[in-house]
Amino acid sequence: MYYPDEIVEEVRNRNNIVDLIGSYVKLTKRGSSYVGLCPFHNERTPSFHVSADKQMYYCFGCGEGGNIYTFLMNYENQTFPEAIRTLADRAGITLPEKEMTAQEKKERSRRTQLLEIQKEAAKFFVYCLHGAEGKQAALYLQKRRLTAETIAHFGLGYAPKNSRSLYTYLRKKGYRDDLLKESGLFTYDEKRGFTCKFWNRVMFPIMNQANKVIGFGGRVMGDGKPKYLNSPETILFDKSSNLYGLNYARSSRKPYLILCEGYMDVIAMHQAGFTNAVASLGTAMTPKHAILIKRFVNEVRLAYDSDEAGVKAAMRAISILNHGQIRSRVINMKPHKDPDEFISNLGTEAFQKRIDDALSSFMFEVSVKHGQYRQNDPDERASFLRHTAVMLLRFPEEAERQVYIEAISREYGIDARSLQDMVRNMSARMTERDIENYNSREDVRIIQPEKIHYPPSVNSLLISERRILTLLSEDSSLIRRVNGILSPEDFEDPMCRKIAEKMFASVSDPAGFSPAKILDSFEEAEEQKEAAAVFHEKSSDEMTEEEIEKSLTESIIRIKQIKLEKLIRDAKSAQDMQMIIKLKKELENFTLPA
User: Which of 195, 382, 417, 453 has CA 20 to 30 A from 254's CA?
Assistant: First the structure.
């Protein structure tokens, strides 16, 4: 739901960020800020700062930062509207409710009833599992070494052989046929009427992130086909946009998810204590899954089967995760097929070690390609080297590329210098499009760099720009003094320019300037994080007025000097020369006006 800006601001102003974060993290006052151990990454020395004045937080260790809304969205995995509602309740603010149209009310009522049907079906299947007709299914779950607590936790059940019993149960509950047709639980024809899609199957309820049942997976008892059956697509259930177990894994607080292939793997891993395990729902990894995962973590450990099909699935998943800017590593299951089998035979400590030793996705891809070529055949080994060289071109940074060249050299007995020369030759001969086409043909993809790496001169400019904005954010009276000396156009960094525009505009705004308010204007989480970093370049905390004045003056001079150097380098007209002379005069005796 959309909330107007004035409501967003009121809710933020009525909640103190130090009080909120202090309820999650132990904070200690240090100067004008509060510090503690970052809740978003493991650390021993506090680098997580919360500013009461700015109503913002920032971690100098991992770069996480934002305002009071961002914190709830990152820590509690809430959406923006959910965060607003949480904070409004906390402050005792009644939010306006949007008046729904008759059609919207009808759709909401229908969706609510469909959710109720899924819930009632889940209760019915649980009842059947613990009855006489569910004996075979109960024995199957016992053989899979699932405890009663685990079975109850995941709501496992049994769909009986009588394929009309669920229909009879739901009709007695008062649900209409048109809703039952839409539920995804039944097939219907005029001769046979309603029959349950699931019969004689162990049932796995599929829940959304709000712990509401939206569909089911069923494992057949005996030799029937298909072995596993999922609910069809409905208005509640989209298998390409949901992950089994995510409703529990989202609260694990681990910095990565473990991605498995099936229900039983997830359940077995949660029972063993690996509560960050999830699985795709009877479908291969999709870009929608990557988008969903990115909401919670930036890294995935793949725990796919060790057979040929599992390797192919892992290669596809790596490609999609790379495009989604999600790091991935691959867990070695051998000599066992899957996590359930591995844990049953070797135990949880051994599996944890495999998680810790998981292979980087790039080295896994290289190992797969290595196995596809006969290494004792000179032509095939040469082909393997050529393919590896092109794969290495994914990395834009020379240093990062060199690290992998050395790792491949050690692993496969390849001369590092020869491989490096081959990579350089490939880079000189191939365009970016050639490389992308080659990799696409070989079922790998180009990795886009997550951040732009600036040359040293630009880095110093970025530091100066951020320092100015940080100092202005901590003393809004400085904005008036700087306004006119600098303009938003003087800031080269796009994020700094956006913030400068909003900051200088606040001079004429009766409400004044607020760093936390600026963060609200950025919709993307990455932009909010980047903006938070801008406001934490070098705090004026524990600086004297003279030191603040000196730092601000030096930073402004640095920006103008770099602008002057650029003008001199690119000068083409008399007008450019006039601008150069003007800037030189300004810099000769520059002082910050009082």
Answer: 453
